[in-house]
Amino acid sequence: MGHYILEYCETVPEKGTSAVMESTLREALVAPCVSCDPAPAPVKNLTPDSETRNAATMPFLEVSTNLPKEKVTPEVLSGLSKMVSEMLDKSESYCMMHVLPDQLMTFGGTSEPCAVVRLSSIGRLGVELNKKHAAKIFAFMDKHLGISNDRMFMAFQDLDSSTVGYKGTTFHELYGR
Fold first, then answer.
1. GO: which molecular function terms (predicted)?
2. pTM, 2 dp
């Protein structure tokens, strides 16, 4: 596999836009290096707020908890969806929440309320971003479900577009990255 060239985004977000746009890399713009590949593929010119980028970064949040089903209300699910959408700067129409209540779980040897959370996305995750995401998710879980931050683990999974299926194929096939 050859080297790749990443094109840098020179746009500066306007006041009021998401802080996630602080990143200097435009995820969608990757092309093979000309010195390694004599005929590089054309670079896709997607804008940072394009619908295609939103779809190609499809986040989903999974929560397994020992809380009873009655505690996981439709308002909790819609609140999680809205939070993930804003947090990752994604259209909520591409966000999926999956909460599994009534799980047989213990944490630290007790069965007090606890959870395991996994946030998966194609991009929009990383060392510094995950710290911000964790702070928001932990606060939400404590406020809305009563699960304290010392009774929960969270895993972040940055997925490759070729490993996520959608519309009968993969995101890589649909969006070329």
1. cytokine activity; dopachrome isomerase activity; phenylpyruvate tautomerase activity
2. 0.69
